[in-house]
Design a protein that fits this description.
There is one protein chain. By secondary structure, this protein is mostly helical. It is built from 4 helices and 4 strands. The strands form 2 sheets. The chain has a two-stranded antiparallel ribbon with strand order 1-2. It has a two-stranded antiparallel ribbon with strand order 3-4. A hairpin with a 2-residue loop joins strand 1 and strand 2. Helix 1 crosses helix 4. It is globular and about 35 Å long.
Length: 91
């Protein structure tokens, strides 16, 4: 549940109110769209995109970038773990 809340929680970024689901949609098995650029984003859930969370360095890079944008800091290990556990639980 904590991972789901993390994914859906709205935060202010560059004077806008966003959530992860703003780009990735509230259904992570669906293709998303980058809010600012309009480019397609592959589904976030491994059930729909088995390549997600395979490369540890890529996962860490993306989480670091997004956490910095939304929180102004690195996400804690527990936050990352909860988020990934939630994504892995989606069927």
């Amino acid at each position: 549940e904590a991972g789901r809340e993390f994914f859906l929680k709205r935060r202010t970024w560059q004077k806008h109110n966003f959530a992860c689901s703003s780009c990735h949609t509230s259904n992570p098995t669906k293709e998303g769209k980058h809010v600012a650029f309009g480019t397609a984003i592959e589904p976030l859930a491994p059930a729909a995109n088995p390549a997600r969370f395979i490369e540890a360095a890529k996962v860490e890079k993306n989480l670091a970038m997004h956490c910095s944008d939304f929180y102004g800091r690195d996400c804690r290990a527990l936050e990352k773990g909860n988020f990934i556990a939630y994504m892995m639980s989606i069927k």
